Amino acid sequence: MSPSAQISTSVPATTIPTKVMASSSKKATSCACNCSSDAATTSQAIQVQPSRFLSAAAKARPPSAIRSLFPAELIPGMLSLLAGKPNPTTFPIAEISMTLKPDAVDGMGEDGQGKKLEIKGKDLETALQYGYTSGTVSTLKWLTDFQSRVHGREIVNQGDKLDGVAGRTPWRITIGVGSQDLLNKAFEALVNPGDVVLVESPVYTGILPSLEMLKAKIVPIESDSEGLSSVELAKILAEWGTTPLTKGLAAPKLLYTTPTGANPAGTTASDQRKREVLKLAREYDFMIMEDDPYYYLSFEGLGQDPVTRTRSRCYWSLEEEGREVYGTGRVLRFESFSKILAAGLRLGFATGPEEILEAIDMHTAMANLQPSGVAQAVAQRLFDHWGVEGFLRHVDQVASFYEKRRDNFEEKARRILGEVAEWVTPVAGMFLWLKLKLPPSAEGDDQGDSFALISERAKAAGVLAVPGMAFMPRGDKTCYVRTSFSLIEEENVEEAFQRLRGVILDAWKE
Ligand code: PMP
User: Fold this and answer.
1) Residue 433: closest CA among 481, 368, 385
2) What phi and psi, each to the nearest 5 degrees, are found at residue 509?
3) How far, in Å, is the centroid of ligand 1 from the Cα of 293?
4) DSSP letter at 114?
5) What's the CA-to-centroid distance between 450 and ligand 1, angstroms?
6) How many angstroms is it from 204 CA to the middle of ligand 1?
7) Ligand 1 pocket residue status of 293, Cβ below 6 Å
8) What is the rounded distance in angstroms from the CA atom of residue 57 to the CA atom of residue 351?
9) Distance between CA atoms of residues 475 and 469, nearest Å
10) Could you give the ipTM of this predicted complex?
């Protein structure tokens, strides 16, 4: 089947997201949505060409005059007078040494104490000096091989931008100061004022300020027990412009979702759900930002061999399935070492199409030059020590820790909160999203409003949690509350739930 595009013209083109469907014979016609520059007449036409999703700000940003010359320093025989780099002989650090916990994966040294890992020599030199905008070469390489192995996508030569295979778009990785840094830069790279961004509801509250600053139009998509609802998404897209939610809005450009152990809902999407959402992204031509910091904190399949066990497919992996017909380059994947190595390392990485990562890197070159070389060297030392197998054993050890905590937390929740709350059992991550049974609020909300109850009364009763309103894309009232089983001492869970139960029951007495 040779890919080409068919544009549905049954709806007014100015506001309705245009369907782009794969078909074997029809050629692209005019189009009012994001897909215009993909529409061409050759069999190569359907390549996603992610650059057309870039924002005006990203397109206008000039490259860094100095950083763009850095690679030339590696040319043999080149004499460099470029450097604003400090002379490393003045750096006072001779070696960085860390000690693993003896009970960490491969953490025991020969002396029965925690294994010592050193960063020295060339690695230390690289760690301490200014480096490349997208990250240290060795770490980028390790992560690229790792991504390819875990998610089954072939490594594409970055210099070979369109390699002649229909629908293929090269991908690569960039490293950031946590995934938050990269999420924020990605939004800036993609969103113009007035652009429509679809977000799951409830949503990770940390992305909302970016979208507000960029003057995005946020369209919330309801969630169910698997997170973002594909049925709801399909309905909203099909009715685009005809309901109060989307009236007068341009076609959506971007969808943001957290597929595994969502923050706050704790939900995890099945591969089938992801396929349905991906299909809609192709039909209606929008990008998907998959924010997946809890991917390795999935409890499903734990106990099997960490190296060979089947893990869920991510959007970025699944988009390959249709590449002959639809092309790739529609998914930007965000991951983080915060939950699986250490949050204070501030290391995250994005995987996706070259054009978008280039825009993110240009932002980094302007804003903070590069991620920390020392943080990357610490992570790299661990990767070298563990290899991919050891790393996968490590992440499963972390996931098992959270699974046990989930079990304890949920058992107590069932016992103490069973009558006053309901929830979906999280199969990944660290959150239990409680739907409280509250009296209707004074404003007439049938399901009640948890805001004052949680932020004032529960606090006064000695228990803290996050009122659900913080995760509502439009700040709507809600009866939900986010609780986390990550840190609380297991022996305190019961008392915390008793206090919560007390304030809920009191609310009914008024
Ligand atoms: N996305 C989600 C869904 C999160 O929960 C968090 C952390 N709270 C982040 C991104 C940011 O993580 P980090 O910057 O530490 O990688």
Assistant:
1) 481
2) -80, -15
3) 6
4) B
5) 24
6) 8
7) yes
8) 21
9) 6
10) 0.99
